[in-house]
Structures are given as structure tokens and as C-alpha cells.
Amino acid sequence: MMAWTVLGVHVALIAFNVAGLVLIPLGAWRHWRWIRGFWWRLAHLLILAAVAVQALAGRVCFLTLWQSRLTGNGNPQPLIAGWIDKVIYWPLPLWFFTVLYIAVWLYVVFLWWRFPPRLPRRRHKP
Question: Residues near 36 by Cβ (< 8 Å), separated by ≥ 6?
Fold first, then answer.
């Protein structure tokens, strides 16, 4: 059950990050105001920075490690879990992911600069 939870969190974070990569420029083009929301843009930037830093350090994502440890007991995976594993865990060398994650993070920094988020409003106390 815990492996499923880790997998679910991992898939949700990947979906969040990929969606942001697409929705920020699309939303800017379509003039969607919500794409300039500060807190979700900051979360997007920081999550991808954490991924890039882990890759630069030569480390695999901690969620990948947790799931690997949790499923390492030899039990066969259900069909859907196996399919999701094939989609998010590519059998490529770590250097490939390091280059990919740094490129994606630089793209997010570019999006931050090109389509800056709105700063949160200060609430004045009465």
C-alpha cells in the first residue's frame, strides 16, 4: 500500500510539473490570469530546482528510491502500476536525466522571467 502511495505522489508531482511547462506559455498566450499565480509558480520552480539539484549531485530522485525499496520484495506488479513504471522510469543513464532536468529547470526560469507571476498582495491589518 505504501508503494502505491509513493507512486501516486510521484505521478502527481510529474503531472504538476509537466502541466506547468505547457500551461504557463499557453496561458500567457491565451491571457489566462491564473497562470501568474505566485505560490503555484514558486512551487513549480522549486520542485524542478530540487529535481535538477539531485541530478547534478548524481542522485536518483528520493521518490524513485523509496518506491524501489518498497517494491523490492519480489511481488509482481499490477498491470496499471507496471504501465506507469514504464512511463515514468526510463532505462537511460543518469547523465541523460541530469541534462534533461537542468534544461527543463532553465526553461522554467525562462518562463518565470518571460511571464512573471504576480506578487501576492499584502493584507493590511485594520
Answer: 115, 116, 117, 118
More confident of the two residues 47 and 1: 47
Which pLDDT tens digit goes with each residue over 34-90? 999 999 999 999 999 998 998 899 887 888 788 778 877 444 454 455 656 677 677
How far is residue 28's CA from residue 98's CA, in Å, rounded to a whole number? 28
Using CB atoms within 10 Å of the CB of residue 36, give its burial: 0 to 12 exposed, 13 to 18 middle, 19+ buried. Answer: middle
The answer to whether the beta carbons of residues 8 and 80 sit under 8 Å apart is no
Containing 37, the helix (H) or strand (E) segment is none
Only one residue has cell 506547468, namely 20
Determine the Cα–Cα distance for residues 6 and 8; give it in Å rounded to an integer: 5
Closest listed residue to residue 47, CA positions, set 63, 32, 35: 63
Mean pLDDT (whole number) for 88-104 = 84
Domain spans in the chain, listed from the N-terminal domain onward: 2-114
